[in-house]
Amino acid sequence: LMFFPYKDDNPRVLFPFVTFGIIILNVLVFLAQFWISGKDPDNGRSLVYMYGFVPAEFNPLTIFTSMFMHGGFMHLIGNMLYMWIFADNIEDNLGPSKFLIFYLLAGVGAAMTQVLMDTQSQIPMVGASGAIGGVLGAYLINHPNAKVLVLIPFGFFSQLIKIRALYVLGFWFVLQFLSLIHISE
Fold first, then answer.
1. DSSP 8-state secondary structure symbol assigned to residue 72
2. 91-109: per-residue pLDDT in tens?
3. Residue 61 pairs with which residues in a beta bridge?
4. CA neighbours closer than 13 Å in the CB half-sphere of residue 84
5. What string of DSSP letters covers 126-144?
6. Alpha-carbon distance 139 to 157, whole Å?
């Protein structure tokens, strides 16, 4: 069963400037990556190794630059969709400054977890998934009963239904865990 979240019913008070800014920055960085890779795939790979976080090389600056890079369109779209739906409420809860710090610390925490899993890895880590995972965890703790409108495709047909955030985000966390198992095999 696959579904795609569309929006939540959890109202926000303030416009999510930081959330919106993070999304724009991620999209702009990805477009730059795409443009550079399109002109010369070797330069695109070099860019990933230069700005992606490689645990074996442990460059603290790349922990932050890697959070704004992505491995493909679907990686970017999936991350930014979840960011848009769920981060606004956490930004509302924390305030813009604390939210930005929380977001970055969640990304750093994810990178450090990756280092602990394989300190000798030469594979560059890119993407906002770790930081967004922190945001989704905060949403799950603070708003588990919020309803999320999801699209469930059934072949040529689809259905929009509301599901508790607990189940939508629980499903996301299970998928992330399963992808880690798949990658390590």
1. S
2. 999 999 999 999 999 999 9
3. none
4. 14
5. -SSHHHHHHHHHHHHHH-T
6. 30
